[in-house]
Amino acid sequence: MQGVVDALNWISQLGPMVMMPIIIFVLGLIFRVKLNVLIKSALTIGVGFAGVTIVINWFVAQVGPSVHRMVSNWGIQTSIMDVGWPARAAATWAFPLAAVVVFLVLGVNALMLVTRMTNTVMVDFWSYNHYIFTGAVVWYVTKSATISLIASALDAAISFKLADWTAPLAQKYFGIEDVTFPTANSVAWAPVAWALNKLWDIIPGINKIDARPEKIQKKFGFVGEPLFMGFLIGLLIGVLAEDPVGNILIVGMSTSATMLLTPKMMQILMQGLIPFANAIKGLLNKRFPNNKFTIGVDAALTVANSSAIACGILMVPITLILAALLPGNKLLPISDIAYQAMWLSAWPVAFGKGNIFRGLLSTIVITCCVLWISTSLAPVHTQLALAGGFKMAKGMSMVSTEDAGTHLITWIFYKIAQFLKVVFPAI
After folding, report:
1. pTM above 0.70, yes or no
2. How many beta carbons lie within 10 A of that of residue 268, not counting itself?
3. Per-residue pLDDT for 12 more than 70?
């Protein structure tokens, strides 16, 4: 089984540009997709992922220094260091039961498909690390392999059901046919985003504000286009960082380019993914008639939306302010702040039908929860990181990640495990 984990780790280290074509090609061979369709789809998907990754990473590289200057200028200090999502993922794959969880989740998905409890075919094996993370966290509390595996299986099952529920919205709003997003650290926030959007519906004043890009563009013309909105938002970040004029302009142009190029890169990815998804869906529907199967992929694809990008970029300085002022928070979210902000904005703007104002309100509430969860998980996250080979720097007592805080289901099972440990100490 360790060989399976090693193989998955090796593939994941190649990055999505190589990892996803490999996964798509292997799955296509298993499901007997026509070779010409399969090869073209795999290569196109790889190119699309490369484009999205290049644009987002370039944006983070351009904006990251300004974010650090904001932290320094504002004097923000916290006691828990954010070591970034790669450290969390690496430690998760090092968990001794990781390979068992992989096969367990595969079994859960297959059983739910056969019994028609889900339509989601989870093909994004890298994202299995989210379910493993849940099992690892529970194991460090209970030291029970059985309870750990049950938690992982339930996390996966809940994520698949939530993916089914959100599939129509995801396909309509993100424009991706026959695809859904069972990634646990994203889809778990969909019910929260739905509830918050319902709340904004009944609050006078807020329910009248329509800040969808098309509405803004209709009212203000060119100023409302993502190209110009991105430039203005980037200038704001540069000004808040007290950057020199030249750097402010660089951040402005970088943000403008990100707003414009990311959706275009996503279009390339979709050109490869849709024929593959349709081929898989057709084959499955022949075997299991009257089902409406969807292909489960990484929710990172949701960031390629102009409203989500705009909301996410605005959340960068807001998240830093929240980290400094939020009672009970001890995490300084630096490592992944730009990426996580766009990630967390996806469902709020989707349920708000692209309304950036509503999306921003919901994302602020969700980000507060994420910071609290990150702080709460810090003790067990530190244990997991150390076991995975992480070296604590001098002066560090605990580490966590903003990414860990996005695992809402994991945190719920963590609190349940703590309760069980108190009630049944012999576990």
Report:
1. yes
2. 17
3. no
